[in-house]
Amino acid sequence: MGLLLLITVLGYGVQTLVLQKLGVESQWGQTDYTLLGIYTFGFVASLLVAVLLLLTDFALKNYLSFVFLGCILIKAVASYLFIQSGLNLFENDFLELNFLVAFFIFLLYDIFVAYKLVNQDIRVVEK
């Protein structure tokens, strides 16, 4: 969870700085969305994916890859439903691009968690 929080804070900070440098942060006023809201959604969604993957690793280790794919599919659908009302508001795809940056940051975190769980070192107890 600490890594997820760190990624969220760093991603939000860097994206905010980039938007300020480009001078386009004022466009958030033309929509009902905020960058903080998008990152909050991504944080909660990735936290749920990580918890489900950890529970699957504990109970049904052989099905971890299927659960991962299912979680990513559900997360993608939930993300679309979250951003759906804001699509095509801007000619320059301001909202879509900002959402995609955050989505891929959190997707990389989900992939990292799944990778770490699948590739855990097998510890053999020597007698």
TrEMBL record:
<feature type="transmembrane region" description="Helical">
    <location>
        <begin position="63"/>
        <end position="83"/>
    </location>
</feature>
<protein>
    <submittedName>
        <fullName>Uncharacterized protein</fullName>
    </submittedName>
</protein>
<feature type="transmembrane region" description="Helical">
    <location>
        <begin position="36"/>
        <end position="56"/>
    </location>
</feature>
<feature type="transmembrane region" description="Helical">
    <location>
        <begin position="95"/>
        <end position="118"/>
    </location>
</feature>
<keyword id="KW-0812">Transmembrane</keyword>
<keyword id="KW-1133">Transmembrane helix</keyword>
<keyword id="KW-0472">Membrane</keyword>
